[in-house]
Amino acid sequence: MPVRRSLLADPVLEVAPKLLGMVLRSTSDEGTVAVRLTEVEAYDGPNDPGSHAYRGQTARNAVMFGPPGFLYVYFTYGMHFCMNVSVGPDGQPSAVLLRAGEIVEGIELARVRRGPLETHQVKFNQSGVRQGPVVKRPKVNPDRDLARGPARLCVALGIGRDHNGVDLLAKGSSVQLLPGPGFDGEPSTGPRVGLREAADRNWRFWIPGDPTVSPYRPHVPKRRA
User: What is the pTM of this model?
Assistant: First the structure.
C-alpha cells in the first residue's frame, strides 16, 4: 500500500528524513523498477532561497503549491530530469528532492536504461607523444551507481516530463511511494549539493555508510572570459 498522505503533510524538514528507506516504484510498458531511497534534500518554498518556489508560483513549479504526495519533475542543465515529492499542507510550497537510491527491483531493466559507459585507452611513447588511435572500450555501470544522483535516479526509473504531477499515493499510479523497509537510525546531514543560495543549510539527509549515496559537490561559479 502507498504511504499515507497525512505523513507527507508535515513540515518539509520533518518529512525529508522520513523518506529514507521508503521505496519508489515505477512501472511502464518496459517493466518495473523500484528503489529504496538513500539520499534526499529538503526545499522550503518561500523560506528558502534555494527553492524553485522562493519567488512564487509558475507553470514550472505549480506542483509544489498543491497537496502533498505528488511528483514534481523538472528539466535541468538542458540534459537531465530531476524529481521531487511535494510535501507540507496544500498551498504551502515545499518539496523533497530525491537524490539517490538502491535498486531493489528490476535491476536488469535499470542496467539497460543506464547503458554501458565508454572508457578511453590512450598509449603514449616515452616522449609523451600519443601512439596510435584512441581505443574505446565498454564499461559496465557498477550497480551502486545505477541510481546514485538525481539524474541517474530518474533514468533508472524511466522518469521524464510526462510524470510531472503524478499522484504517488494513488492506487494504480504508474509511480508509487511505498513504505518499504524504512530506516530507523540517525540520518547523516549536510549542505545541499551545488546550490548558490542558502548553501550553508544542512538540509541534505542520507543513510550513513550506504554506497549508493552520491558525493557532495558545492556550487562552483562560472568563470567569465
Answer: 0.86
